[in-house]
Each structure stands twice: as C-alpha cells, then as structure tokens.
Amino acid sequence: MKTFVIIWTGQLVSTLGSSLTNFALGVWIYATTGSATLFAMTLLVSVLPQIALSPLAGVVVDRWDRRWVMMLADTGAAASSLFVALMLLTGRLEVWHVYVSAFFNAGFSTFQWPAYAAVTSLLVPKAHLGRAGGMTQIGDAISQLAAPALAGALFVTVGLPVILLIDLATYLVALATLLAVRFPKPEATDEGAAARGSFWHEAAFGWRYIRARPGLLGLLMTFAVLNFLVSTTFALYTPLILGMTTPDVLGYVNSVAGLGMLAGTLLMSVWGGPKRRIFGIFIAELVLGVTTLIFGLRLSIPLIAVNNFCFMLAMPVSNGCSQAIWQTKVKPDIQGRVFAIRRMIASSIMPLAYAVAGPLAELVFEPWMAEGGALAGVLGPVMGVGPGHGIGLIFTLFGALYMLGVGAILLHPRIRRLELEIPDAV
Asked: Residue 226, by phi and psi: left (phi above 0), alpha (psi -120 to 50) or beta?
C-alpha cells in the first residue's frame, strides 16, 4: 500500500499540471477562433489514439515492466507539452500545433492508463479496490477543483507560457516517484499462458476474453453508448459557458464541479461502494442523466454550478464501482490487454460525438432556438431563446436519452448478475 500511495501522489501532481494546460489551451483555442467546432476538434484528436493504439498498449503493458511503461509514457507526454511551449515562446503557436500536442499526449496516456490500472490490483487487497478506485480519482477531483480557477486566473494574469512551465514541472514529480519504487510481477495464470503467442494473437486476446463473458461485454457496450451521449454535451460545455461569461468565471464554475468530484472520491475512498457494485453504477449513472437533462432547462451560472456539483459527485461512484468490478474479475497478468481493449471499445464512439457536436450546435440547434427559430415558439417559454439555448436543448435531449440507456444496466440480466455469475480472479 505504501508503494501505491507513492505512485498515487506523483500521478496526482502530474494530473493537476495536465489539467491546467488542458483548460488553458481550450480557452486559448476558443478565444482565438470563436468556434465551438474547432474547440471540439481538440477533444476528437485526443480520443483517436486511444482507439488506434489500445491493442498495442495492452500487449506492451503485460509484456514489459509496468513501471517503465508509466515512466516512458509520462516522458512522452511531457515532450508534447514542451513542443507547445516552444511554439508559444517563439511566437509561432497555431491551432494545429495544439492538435498535434493533444494527439501525442493522448497516445502516451493510452499506454499509461492500463499500466496504472493493472498495477493497482497487484498492490491493493481485493477488499480495498473500491477505495483505491476512489483514491485514484481524487487526483482528478483535486485537478477539477483547483485547476480551472487557478488556470483561469493565471491565463488572464501571467498568460499561457507560465501554465505550460508548471505542467512540465509536475511531470518531473511523477517521474521521480516512479523512480523511487519497484512493482511486483503478476503471478502467472492459465489465462495468461493461453494469451501468449504472436503480437496480433495477444492484441486480440482482450476482446476474446471480454466477448466470452456476456456480463462484462454488456456493461462495456452500455458505457460506450453513454460515453457518446455525455461526450457530445462535454464538447459543447466550454463554448456554452464562455458565450455567457469570462474565462475566470468558467474556472470558478468548474471548481464548484471539482468540489463535487472531490466529495464523490472521498466517499468512495472511505466507503468503497455497495456490496453489489453494479447497483452503485446504476444509481450513479442515473444521477448523471438527470443532471444533464436539468442542465439545459435554465441557463444560469449559479444553477449550472450547482448542477455541475451534483453531476461530478456521482461520477466517481460509478467509475470506482466499475473499475473495482473489472479489477476483481480479470486476472492480474492479463489486465493490461483486457483493460486496453476495454478502454478502446468504451471510447470507440466518442470521435463521432466530438465530430458532430460543433456542427450540430452551430448549424441545427442554435438556429432552431434563436429568435424566430423553428422551436423558439414551442420551447422558448420554458427554456428561453437566443445564443446558447440551442446547446441547452442538446443537453436536455441527450440527458433524457442517457437515462433510457442507464436502464439497460438493470434490465439486462447478464449485466445485473455479472458479479454473481463471473468468479473473482483476485
């Protein structure tokens, strides 16, 4: 557990630095272009490497020392941030440079995440995997809490260069913690022996493993659909708020969401989730759908802040329960391949969400909810009309669809009973 805490500390600091940069670069793109579509393209290029490189990442994580995989991934991510910093300091930074950096940063993250997830089950007892999942998300919560307000304030005072330098310093902290520890090797199992073979055989093993377990497959496909819905709204969130207020206020609103996420991660860290974690996923995901629906009904900064708090409170519960299920049901020596394919499938439909979000808002829903628009007379008395209300309608519509999708978790018997039907692997 000591080793896990050391690694967790380094990754927490690194996540904070990355969050500063991601927030600042998103604001820079929207301030430079004023386009929701170009902003959403940053998210699109960030998810493509997850899909393309996940099979390779899974094989590498299971074949190599996972500590070295994490170290090399952190080094590569630092190099991508350094590239943006150099372009900015020489006065040559353009939007496409940010896209290139985001692409490579996401590519290295594709290797880092399954290595981190797989080693956690080697360091943490099975009974505490839910709590470890909560601790892992504390880094995201603190970043969500501190990074937006801090990045927003830094952006309007000292500018983007200082933010990029802070990000680079946090990568050095993460590397130092990884250099200070050693990881145990996973115990060899029959499943691991069956997975060995050529590179392509091993790359495809994760899919074969999941497909043979209908409960895990059903849960994964449900999350893929839900990810599409939430990713579409996520791509429009920053343009919507920046259309209503200034970058520093956006940072403060996001920090309120960070408080919610911190509360959720602390809850999971102490509680660990219900005994039947699938029910924890269902309730938390239902809250996500309800809050997304409510978000678009009334565009008010205080109401949005409260809604964000509730949304982010539920997210760590769902993620922590889901992660604990997968870490419990998959043998440690094959988790790299299985987790990589799991992430690839869950993310596979997200590029479509990021690609359609901007045009859907700018060409369809915003004109519909403008003064005199096709839906302004019908929905205007309830939701209001004018700039931003078309995006609000997308949030409300997709929130309703999200709630319908969540129902599959309980209605599908293999998903509902997967913890009872699939034996524990650890």
From this structure: alpha
The percent of the chain in helix, strand and coil, each rounded to the nearest 5, is: 85, 0, 15
Q: Is the pTM of this model over 0.85?
A: no
- CA 2 – CA 219 distance, rounded (Å): 32
Which phi and psi (to 5°) does residue 326 adopt? -65, -40
How many C-beta atoms surround the C-beta of residue 175 within 10 A?
18
CA angle 388, 389, 391 (to 5 degrees): 70
pLDDT tens-digit readout, 317-359: 998 899 889 989 988 888 888 888 888 888 888 888 888 888 9
In this structure, the dihedral spanned by the alpha carbons of residues 135, 127, 55 and 199, taken in order and rounded to 10 degrees, is 130
Q: Which amino acid is at 129?
A: L
> What is the 3 state secondary structure string of 57-115?
HHHHHHHCCHHHHHHHHHHHHHHHHHHHHHHHHCCCCCHHHHHHHHHHHHHHHHHHHHH
Q: Which two tokens stand for residue 96?
A: 């496409």
Token readout for 266 is 């602390």
d(CA 335, CA 183): 15
| Residue 345: Cβ-neighbour burial (10 angstroms; 0-12, 13-18, 19+) | buried
Residue-range domain boundaries for the chain: 2-421
Pairwise CA distance, residues 70 & 367, whole Å: 46
pLDDT digits (tens, 9 = 90+) for 122-145: 887 777 777 777 777 776 676 666
DSSP 3-state of 209: helix
Alpha helices in 243-375 (DSSP H): 247-271, 277-295, 301-329, 335-347, 350-359, 366-368
Residue 187 DSSP code: P
Residue 137 to residue 56: CA distance in whole angstroms: 25
Phi, psi of 322 (to 5 degrees): -65, -45
CATH among 1.20.120.520, 2.40.100.20, 1.20.1250.20, 1.20.120.140 for 2-421:
1.20.1250.20
Residues 169/17, Cβ–Cβ less than 8 Å: yes
230 close to 405: Cβ distance less than 8 angstroms = no
Q: Is residue 292 packed enough to be buried (19+ CB in 10 Å), middle (13-18) or exposed (0-12)? A: buried
Q: Contact at 8 Å (CB) between 65 and 145?
A: no
CB atoms within 10 A of CB 19: 25
